[in-house]
Amino acid sequence: MKDIFSSTLKTTVLTFLIVAFGLLLDLYFIQHYENFLQLLPILGIWSLLIIFAIRRRLSNKFITTLMIYSIILIALIGLLGVFFHLKANFEFEKEIYVNETTINLLINSFSGALPVFAPGSLLILSLLGMLYLQLTSKI
User: Fold this and answer.
1) Which residue, 40, 46, 60, 124, shows the most beta carbons closer than 10 Å to its own?
2) In angstroms, rounded to a whole number, what is the distance separating the alpha carbons of residues 108 and 139?
3) With a threshold of 0.85, does the pTM exceed it?
4) Residue ranges of the domains in the chain?
C-alpha cells in the first residue's frame, strides 16, 4: 500500500512540475507578457512554484494555507483569462461582421484568434496542486 501511495505522490509531483513549467514556457514563447494582465498567469505560476518548493521542505499550517490560496488564485486567473480571451475575440468579430447577430458573434468568438479555453489549463494546474495537498495532508 505504501508503494502505491509513494508512486502516486511522485507521479503527482512530476505532473505538477511538468504542467507548471510547460505553461511558463508556452507563455514565454507566445510573448504573453506585454501588459500587467498578461503577466498575471506567469507571476501566479512562479509564486505557486515557490510556495510548492517551500511546502516540500517545510510543511506547516501557514505554508499549507498559503499554497491553498495560491491554488485558488491560479484557478481565478485561469477563469479570468478565459473571459478576456473570449471578450477580445468577440470584439474582433464585432468589428469584422458589423451586421451579425450577437449570438452568432459569440459562437464565432469561441474559435477566434485567441484560444478561449487555453487559460483553462491553469485550472488543471490548480487541481494538481490540490491533489498534491490531499496526498500530503496528515489524516
Assistant:
1) 40
2) 48
3) yes
4) 2-136
